[in-house]
Write a structure and sequence with these properties.
- The chain has one domain (3-109): 2-Layer Sandwich (Alpha-Beta Plaits).
- Helix content is 35%, strand content 38%.
- The chain is built from three helices and five strands, in the order E-H-E-E-H-E-H-E.
- Strands 2-3-1-4-5 form a five-stranded mixed β-sheet, covered by helices on one side.
- Helix 1 packs antiparallel against helix 2 (63-81).
- The longest helix has 19 residues, at 63-81.
């Protein structure tokens, strides 16, 4: 099974943190119902909770349905609360995936060698 991993680096303004945390709970609840989501984790910098990383891993054919169906209803609100500072895509990303992620300034890394269990 081929996977695609995305890591987002976000900046959230201090007065938006509470609303942001509420929103990401809603997004995670929706992602739980997706069949191809392997990992979806939000983490904050221990020294500055306004810096958030999102770690997402999907079966490759589940990325576009996630973006188009699960994330789309939340995207405007998330982008109003947080700035995407960086986005890294890992794995063999299709042209369709890249067309969606390019809007966020994605940088892509292709697999060299590794193990996943």
């Amino acid at each position: 099974m081929k996977h695609v991993t995305c890591v987002f680096d976000l900046a959230v303004e201090p007065d938006h943190l509470s609303e942001f945390k509420s929103l990401i709970n809603d997004i995670v609840d929706d992602a739980r119902r997706e069949t191809g989501t392997v990992i979806r984790e939000y983490s904050s910098n221990a020294a500055d909770e306004r810096e958030i990383h999102i770690d997402e891993r999907y079966e490759a054919d589940a990325v576009l349905p996630h973006i188009n169906e699960t994330f789309a209803p939340h995207s405007e609100r998330l982008l109003a609360l947080a700035q995407i500072k960086a986005l890294y895509g890992y794995g063999e990303t299709s042209l369709g995936i890249r067309n969606k992620l390019d809007d966020f300034g994605a940088v892509y890394f292709t697999p060299l060698v590794g193990i996943s269990k």
